[in-house]
């Protein structure tokens, strides 16, 4: 049975209209109540990142150190604030270039050797340049970096072809302390000679004990015939 919404009488289902009032008996769709569309605007809150906090602290420390250094130059003539500034800068390099970097570890070692050697040179320069950095630290640091690259190459023997360029680059960089000696920036030659000899031994050993793939990669990169 269908009920007419006007007359409120029950009518047989075969009827399409009410016999009394003629109103259609089809079910009407319930009217949908529409509400006004309110767009919610969220205020964007800029979160302070750890990088910005560290940057602010770094600049603050350098400025405070520089101020104290300048105010106490009559008591201590050493520009130690330069060492502090370069140290914080190198700390940024360690975080960005090592902890967060995904590039080849040989590239990271080469990168850090250059900056660390420069850092020690700046320290030596600020403390009166007694040449301990150019005589011992920089050459022996190069030997240590080459040794670490050798360990990495031995650890990943199938990937030696990825280490060729960095080990050769370390060899040529290890020649730089020789230039320091020539221009009288260092007075001790044996650490530089030892580093160069060690780099040569490393390269010769890799060539002798490597497989054919390594030698083919060597020929391809350096166009040996």
TrEMBL record:
Pfam families: DUF6320. Keywords: Membrane, Transmembrane, Transmembrane helix. InterPro entries: DUF6320. The chain crosses the membrane at residues 53-72, 78-101, 113-130, 136-155, 164-183, 189-209. It comes from the Bacteria. This is Zinc ribbon domain-containing protein.
């Amino acid at each position: 049975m269908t009920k007419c919404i006007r007359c409120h009488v029950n009518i047989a289902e075969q009827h399409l209209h009410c016999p009394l009032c003629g109103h259609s008996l089809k079910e009407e769709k319930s009217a949908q109540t529409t509400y006004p569309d309110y767009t919610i605007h969220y205020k964007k809150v800029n979160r302070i990142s750890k990088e910005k906090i560290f940057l602010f602290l770094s600049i603050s420390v350098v400025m405070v150190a520089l101020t104290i250094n300048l105010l106490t130059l009559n008591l201590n003539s050493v520009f130690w604030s330069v060492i502090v500034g370069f140290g914080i800068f190198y700390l940024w390099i360690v975080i960005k270039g090592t902890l967060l970097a995904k590039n080849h570890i040989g590239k990271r070692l080469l990168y850090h050797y250059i900056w660390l050697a420069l850092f020690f040179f700046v320290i030596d320069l600020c403390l009166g340049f007694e040449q301990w950095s150019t005589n011992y630290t920089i050459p022996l640091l190069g030997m240590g970096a080459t040794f670490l690259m050798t360990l990495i190459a031995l650890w990943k023997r199938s990937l030696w072809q990825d280490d060729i360029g960095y080990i050769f680059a370390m060899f040529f960089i290890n020649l730089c302390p020789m230039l320091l000696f020539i221009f009288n920036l260092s007075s001790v030659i044996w650490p530089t000679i030892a580093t160069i000899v060690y780099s040569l031994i490393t390269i010769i050993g890799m060539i002798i004990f490597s497989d054919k793939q390594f030698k083919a990669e060597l020929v391809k990169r350096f166009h040996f015939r």
